[in-house]
Amino acid sequence: MTPEQRAAEQAAKDKRAQAEAKLEHLNQARFACEEFVKRSLHDPDSAQFEDSDTFFAEETKPDSYRVQARLRAKNGFGALRKIVVECRLLSTKDKWVATSVRPLEN
Fold first, then answer.
1. What single-letter DSSP state applies at residue 105?
2. What confidence score (pLDDT) does residue 39 get?
3. Which residues pair with 90 in a beta bridge?
4. Mind listing the pLDDT tens digit for each residue in 78-92?
5. From CA 68, how far away is CA 54, in angstroms rounded?
6. Residue 106 — pLDDT band, cuts 50, 70, 90?
7. In total, how many domains does the chain have?
8. Please, what sign has the CA dihedral across residues 43, 64, 66, 101?
9. pLDDT tens, 27-43?
10. pLDDT tens digits, residue range 17-27?
11. What CATH number corresponds to the domain at position 41?
12. Which domain holds residue 99?
């Protein structure tokens, strides 16, 4: 291989690694959101989340994420309701911090 081919191959590997790391961070954000939503519910054991892979997630700024989780959960009256919750999260080296967890209008 020529030096140019090696450089192109390395650049492609680096690009794939960055994409994989970004996807892993988004998946971690989805999981963290699910955990924060459970903690905020009246009856956490009633939570029935849709597949977290389908949750909308984006990095809004470096180490700052927005995730929308869809689920069914019991309200204070015991009725099972379908809700969408938005989480705003910050990622630190070893933990996730929720800056806001709020229901969205259906």
1. P
2. 94
3. 64, 97
4. 999 999 999 999 998
5. 9
6. low
7. 1
8. positive
9. 999 999 999 999 999 99
10. 999 999 999 99
11. 3.10.450
12. 3-104
SS3 (DSSP) at 2: coil
28 in Cβ contact with 89 (< 8 Å): no
What would you report as the CA-atom Rg of the chain, rounded to the nearest whole angstrom?
18
Helix runs in the chain, H state only: 3-40
Q: Which is it for strands 80-91 and 96-104: parallel, antiparallel or unpaired?
A: antiparallel
The residue to which tokens 């892979």 are assigned? 53
SS3 48: strand
Regarding pTM above 0.90, the answer is: no
**Looking up tokens 């099972």, which residue turns up?**
80
- Token pair recorded at residue 5: 């081919």
